[in-house]
Amino acid sequence: MVVEINGQTLGNSLSVTMKSDVKTSTTITPSSVSPVLKTRVSIQLESDFPFTLDRGDFSINATSTTNSSYVRYLNVVEVDDSAKSMVALFGGAESGTFQISIRHTEYGLVGTDGLLLDVSSSITSYSPSSGSIYGGTVLTVTGTNFGTEKTDNPIQISNNGGVDSINCYVLETSATEIKCRIESFLNKVDGDVDTMIVFLKTSEEAVCDPVSKCEYTWTSVLPLVTKTTLEWDAESYEWQVWVQGTGFTGDETTTQMFIEDVA
Fold first, then answer.
1. Can you spell out the DSSP letters for 196-217?
2. What CA–CA distances, in Å, run from 113 to 99, 109, 242, 243?
């Protein structure tokens, strides 16, 4: 390289060596995260990365593959130099696919070709797809990237957006399954079909993978209670309620009885 300043060529030359053995990051785990929840992601570098890892030396960003102006930044919170790995905190983004970029203060850009992060949440199945016109049905929804707090993913049964939507109160939740109970004392019309919606912190809706929309049908074909009997059990010192009728299904593990909303 020849350096020229104010029209004068310097006598000394400066040589620059460009390295062709670009170090890369090999994996990101998990490769799919929620759009609305903070998630720790682990990034693995090549084992011979030439610098001691220090979290202050790295900057990481995620750029939308469909909109290069939409960039989210990840904060490096942990490094393991012996394993040449680090942990970064992803704060969420609009649903989509993002290209990961990593820069080191001394090494420069680390190779990240093909290192993509899927930002999404989806419903893969739900059961049952129909229930009582009076409500009270327990739904089990399976999918991806749900939250572990009951308030992370509100669920509603809706036929007109937010107007007259019916709540399904979350009973249990994990990253892949939510159980909720539809509110009671309804008076829906037999055969009506509404849409079940799983919200992501109310800012987005989880995509329904099985079909274009997750349909839920109200039905009046229900078990019939013909008689109830109250008996005192001397052995357990408890009152017991016996229910007789037709059309009952399930067993004691899947059946619940409520008296004024008390199980």
1. EEEEETTTEE-EESSSSS-EEE
2. 8, 11, 66, 64
**230 lies in some domain:** no
> Domain count of the chain?
2
The tens digit of pLDDT for each residue in 20-31 reads 556 777 899 999
Residue 80 shares a structural domain with residue 43: yes
Residue 238 lies in a domain: no
Report if residue 152 sits inside a domain.
yes
Residue 167 sits in a domain of what CATH number? 2.60.40.10
Range of the domain at 184: 122-219
Digit-coded pLDDT (tens) for 98-129: 999 999 999 999 999 989 999 999 999 999 99
SS3 of residue 55 by DSSP: helix
The residue written with tokens 């995260």 in the block is: 33
Q: Which residue has the tokens 């759009």?
A: 35
Largest CA distance in the chain: 109
With tokens 């983004």, the residue in question is 93
Distance set, CA 13 to CA 3, 6, 18, 183 (Å): 7, 16, 16, 79
Q: Is the pTM of this model over 0.90?
A: no
> Are 102 and 153 contained in the same domain?
no
Q: Quick check: helix, strand or coil at residue 19?
A: coil
* Distance separating alpha carbons of residues 248 and 251, to the nearest angstrom: 9
Report whether 44 contacts 26 (CB < 8 A). Answer: yes
Q: DSSP per residue over 128-144, as a string?
A: -SEEETTB-PEEEEEEE
Residue type, 185: F
Judge whether 41 lies within some domain. yes
